[in-house]
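User: Please run a holo structure prediction.
Assistant: Happy to. Please share the sequence and the ligand.
User: Here you go; the ligand is iron/sulfur cluster.
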Amino acid sequence: MAVSTLDIAERVVCRVTPAQAHVWALCGGFFHTQYRSGKSFIPTYSSLLGTSVHEIIAAFDQAIGVAQEDFESLVGRNWRAGRFVKDDDQRALSEAMTLLAAYADLRRSETVQVLDSEVFCQTRPRTVGARQAIVLSGRIDRVARRDDGKIELLDFKTGAVLPTRHELYNDPATTIYHLLAAERYSAQRIVVAQLSLRTGARVEVELDADGVAAGKERLREMARQLVADDFSLTPSASCAFCPARETCPALLFGGETVERPL
Ligand code: SF4
């Protein structure tokens, strides 16, 4: 979903998702190019596999008690034909089966109560300035209640790479997930977790009051930059995936962090 700014009763309302906030934290120029200008990610095999596996897991969670011998038919019913190029389809199907089996193993070993899968959440507008507000929205892969009453937001990864605990804690996407769940589920103790279905590795954080306050400050700054159209360029390994990399001044001027001129 593209970032949009709408004038409502003389107030500018910014709409931001966790994915957008994550990209903003990587580089404002990347964020600006990809979302503000409406250029979306070019789908890759990995991103298409991720989308397919998320759909299948949501179907698995809805069809409680699917036996392993029925995985093939569940995947077949929820497999979107034509999403992959022909040569990739069988490979993706086989990987999806393996990752679904990994998820089924997880479900057998955990005691959480799954509340929602692939659930869309949106906050009411939150004031961030005299004439500015922000609406946070996004899809949460899975929401569950743990035995100790905490709400767990689980983000499934089909790749092997996860952030460190420090990176996840400080990612503005984590703040957005936290605020989405706090509003929708009236929750106070919220765990934001990522799980690699490929390796079984997991990283999770629980924002304390200081973490929420620092995260909100980042979101206020992001909203300010959105309205002011004021982004800095921060070169990193992410430049390899950035749609601006052919023309980006930061790369043309030797990888220095560059402030955009007024
Ligand atoms: S190429 Fe790199 S520095 Fe330039 S906008 Fe993209 S991510 Fe930022």
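The mean pLDDT is 87.
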